[in-house]
Amino acid sequence: MRADRLFAYGATVGLVADALFGDPRRGHPVAGFGRAAARAEALLWRDDRGRGALHTLVCAGGAVGAAALTARAVRDRPALAVALTAATTWSVVGGTSLGREARAIGGALAAGDVETARERLPHLCGRDPQSLDGPQIARAVVESVAENTSDAVVGALVWGAVGGVPGLVGFRAVNTLDAMVGHRSPRYRRYGWASARLDDLAGWPGARLTAALAVAAGGRPADAVRAWRADAGRHPSPNAGPVEAAFAGALGVRLGGTLAYAGRVEHRPVLNAAAGRAVRGADIERAVRLSRRVSALALVVCAAGRMIAGRAAAPTAVQKRRRG
């Protein structure tokens, strides 16, 4: 079986497993990688970029290498290769868990239980919940759903289409390292620099595909394109900007503004300010539904792209074998 079909079949099964079961409840590989990365940090940490780059290389490179060896071991056994791709996809994507957490907060807001919504918000994003009222919590949830649609689903599928199982694992490893050490705290400003920059590079294609699919699936294509073009570049993140702006336009809401992270306040530009309204609690469900449509479309696009690339490469491979 060709590699393009292996990815298409395996990724489909893995995404269905995520839709049915959510994240694995025990022995989650990403959690195991996080523990290993934390132990590596304890050994390697120094307040300089070189040590941080070494940490990134050891952790992300080790994960990709292990995945490549595992994939190579089953490449001549199609059923096992599909199963490995499916299990890896299920492990690295997190769209269903993202939707569940967002809906739980939306349900608390709908019931008027702002305190419960505050308690659950850290499960979804790093905002300081105590400073937020109901509409601000709803806005934080919608922004997190938008950004994590790219980080937790689409980006992984893009790199899976490019690199198979090693691509899936590598993207999740880089994204996890960024979450662990890529922020601008005094401890990680230099040490986490390499992880943060690598995550920016790895997330670039998935973020643009997520934004494009939000335009296609959101029901307001002109507004989504307008917000993307006008506001994406004003966001401090090169990848969150296009995604959040496109979601804002597609949903007809305003995102961005003042944010608080553990005592640190950021004043970000408002996205879709001219055409959008303030986020309401009901918009959380709309954002989750849009995220699910974008994720499904991303699977189709990535699988189709992989198969087209595989067919284009097949004649070249045959010619090489004939010349050999």
Task: Give an overview in words.
The protein has about 325 residues and is mainly α. It has one domain (about 5-324). About 75% of the residues lie in helices and about 5% in strands. The protein has 11 helices and 2 strands, in the order ααααααααααββα. The chain has helices spanning about 5-20, 30-45, 50-75, 80-90, 95-110, 115-120, 135-180, 195-215, 220-230, 240-250, 285-324; strands at about 255-260, 265-270. It has a two-stranded antiparallel sheet with strand order 1-2. Strand 1 (about 255-260) and strand 2 form a beta hairpin. Helix 5 runs antiparallel to helix 6 (about 115-120). The chain is globular, with a radius of gyration of 20 Å. About 45% of the residues are buried. The mean pLDDT is about 90.
What are its keywords?
324 residues, mainly alpha, two-stranded antiparallel ribbon, 2 strands, globular, 11 helices
List the SSEs and their pairings.
Layout: H1 3-21, H2 29-44, H3 49-73, H4 78-92, H5 95-110, H6 114-120, H7 134-181, H8 193-217, H9 221-231, H10 240-251, E1 255-261, E2 264-271, H11 283-323
Antiparallel strand pairs: 1-2
Helix pairs in contact: 1-4, 1-7, 1-11, 2-3, 2-7, 3-7, 4-7, 5-6, 5-7, 5-11, 7-8, 7-10, 7-11, 8-9, 8-10, 8-11, 9-10
